[in-house]
Amino acid sequence: MHIGYNGLWGLLLLAGDIWAIINILQSTVPNEKKLIWIIAVVLLPLLGLILWYFLGPRIGSHG
């Protein structure tokens, strides 16, 4: 099985998105905000992940 350079980036992006979604679900922000962040990460995988990393809720976060 050969995974090319682009395939590796895709797997890393997928792993990052899954990690972000798990962290969003474990945060203490309201469910509406969780849903908005999850939609952003799913629909805009790279941009959503970057935005979540800098602006999104964290585990135990109230914002």
Largest sheet: none
List the secondary-structure elements in sequence, H or E. HHH
Given the C-alpha coordinates, what overall shape results?
A: elongated
How many angstroms does the end-to-end distance come to? 44 Å
Could you explain how this protein is built, in words?
The chain has helices spanning 5-26, 31-43, 45-55. With 63 residues, it is mainly alpha-helical. It has one domain. The longest helix is centred in the N-terminal third of the chain and has 22 residues, at 5-26. It is elongated. The model has no long low-confidence stretch (mean pLDDT 87).
What characteristics describe this protein?
63 residues; mainly alpha; elongated
Q: Concise description?
A:
The protein has 63 residues and is mainly α. Helices cover 73% and strands 0% of the residues.
Give a topology summary.
Blueprint: H1 5-26, H2 31-43, H3 45-55
